Amino acid sequence: xxxxxxxxxxxxxxxxxxxxxxxxxxxxxxxxxxxxxxxxxxxxxxxxxxxxxxxxxxxxxxxxxxxxxxxxxxxxxxxxxxxxxxxxxxxxxxxxxxxxxxxxxxxxxxxxxxxxxxxxxxxxxxxxxxxxxxxxxxxxxxxxxxxxxxxxxxxxxxxxxxxxxxxxxxxxxxxxxxxxxxxxxxxxxxxxxxxxxxxxxxxxxxxxxxxxxxxxxxxxxxx
Length: 223
Description:
By secondary structure, the protein is of the alpha/beta class. The chain is built from 7 helices and 7 strands; from the N terminus they run βαββαβββαβαααα. Strands 1, 2, 3, 4, 5, 6 and 7 form a 7-stranded mixed beta sheet that branches.
């Protein structure tokens, strides 16, 4: 865990400015294949990007945290993630690394992320070796999108696929299971997630909140 021991001496806005400068240096040094992003994860996660240098994922300042970031925050897993594979909505394959900075109480307040576009390298390797996959394997995945609804739809579709039934054939337990998968991914930290999930699963927003309450009770009873 990376922690700042004295935020009175080094205030958060100074940390954000410092990392913004480092972001510019890194992206300009590494060129068009590199993007560096600074997120404020202490507040509004729908508009967490406070600085971005380079253009690999198509995002901009004011954009939202990724699905992986949401899931890690939700689970309290804020250890550094180094050299994992991630993907963009337009099909790029990236190599990414992310770290969280923590305040004096151990609470995460900033995420610093580097994304390298490997797609040209992979295409060249495919040309040379008749392969089109990255040799590095990772269990960590992440979905980038400059559109919040698009990212939520992608995660919802993934959860429905895991259930193995179309929404029209789902029973209550299936929908509740889908909501549990989405809750574990951290998407209910986003204000607009509940109405969208309710619409996609064909239930009311009240039903979604009821499922979340039931899942919380189930979790408490299992511990």
